[in-house]
Design brief:
Layout lengths: L14 H6 L1 H12 L2 E6 L2 E6 L4 H6 L4 E2 H8 L2 H4 L10 H8 L4 H19 L7 E3 L2 H18 L7 H14 L16 H11 L6 H26 L9 H9 L7 H32 L4 H12 L17 H14 L3 E7 L3 E2 L5 E2 L4 E5 L1 H4 L2 H4 L38 H18 E5 L8 E3 L2 E3 L5 E5 L2
Amino acid sequence: MPPLVRYKYPIIGHTYDYYTNSEEFFKKCREEYGDVFSLYIWGEVKTFVGKEHMQEVLTRDDSFDFTQAFERILPLNAMLKNLIKFENSSNKILKEYVINKLRFYTERMQKCLNSATQKHIGDCDEPKVIHDIYSMMTKIISNPISNIFIGEEESKYEEIISTFSEFTTDAVYILRIPPLLDFIFPGLQYYINSTMLKLGIYNPAVKHQEVLIKHIKKQVTKRLQEKEKYGDSWKRPDDFIQDILENWFDPKNIKYEELADVMCLYIFVSIHTTSNSCTHAIMNLASRPEYAQELYEEQLEVQKEADENGILPFEALNNMKKLDSFVRESLRLSEGVITIPHVTLKDSTFSNGLQVPKGRPVFLYTDDVYRDESLQGPNPKSFEPFRHVDTNSSASKIGKNYVIFGGGKHACPGRQLAVNEIKFFLHNVILRYNLRTESGKIEGPKIVGPMKLPSNSGIIFEKRK
């Protein structure tokens, strides 16, 4: 068995150290106990895996499972009761109907991002201070995502943008309650939370499901009527909802609750992560104005590829090499100390001989990867925006030294979509504005337990002369 780190507090074990000084605490555990060790947190033994055996967790599908582990933390299946039909096909559907069509969606994505940027940031003829960048980014990112998923017409409604931007925050609100009940019996907090959701005592998804059902029903009804009226001359809308309707639903018996729930699932996995990553990137850009000119010159050169409407071709993304490196570096240093939970599906043995029993929570000690000089190069703790320019390592490329999107065949299927959105957005921002932090200092992430959250400090946007 992995060694259990000594603890000094009875009952709560390592819980206090885990949340109060996570970075230093894990560093000491790694130095004293090796690459694989266990901690006693919230009434349960959890195992943490460092760089040497991390890939075993990510690639051994018969032993380690992410979906079950995440469900233990947030009972999403109880919140979204109609996901059973899509439970084993959600990644396949996303790849087929969205990821494989990214080239097609390039123009729409840019138009949505540019118009949302104008709406939420504006011209900034006079310097403008914006606080809580994350909230703003959820609204901006929600524009292209809703356009792609639910269609151009419905994505113009403010309540749709609100649902896309707020659903994830509302869904995870239940996690703000510390799992104190797990000290009585491991899993008791999850049982209470899932029961509340199933019985409808508390379900933050309901109001968002109602909005989605209303707009989806309106759009589907319109499309079916127009198809029947115009026949072969009907102009088919090209978006995710049309693709899934034609391939997963009987037009004579459309279950709108299922459609709304699958939409909620994709909102959950796309909006928060992309907005969070983009917020970190903007904060790094504003904190380090010394790199702005070099990035600006690259984006000026890239902009020469744009058409008469200022829209870039899909291939232009490949020429944003410095910006791509900047995004990758920002993502690398903004990931939590601990991330990507798994649970063992059976008694399992690591290549070093250590064994973990069936049902054991297993987490990745990602700081062990990102702070390692042999994997990242010199000064791995410092932010060096052009570290990855000539390394053939794009911001969406997974590997042993970059696991923010997971690994193996279960790596995040939407990572290319997320990175494309971030790059298109930053391209526009860099060309339009000069940025600096309100404090005039480097604003690093907020450390909350093992998580790194974007700073909510103000950023000054000023129109580039």
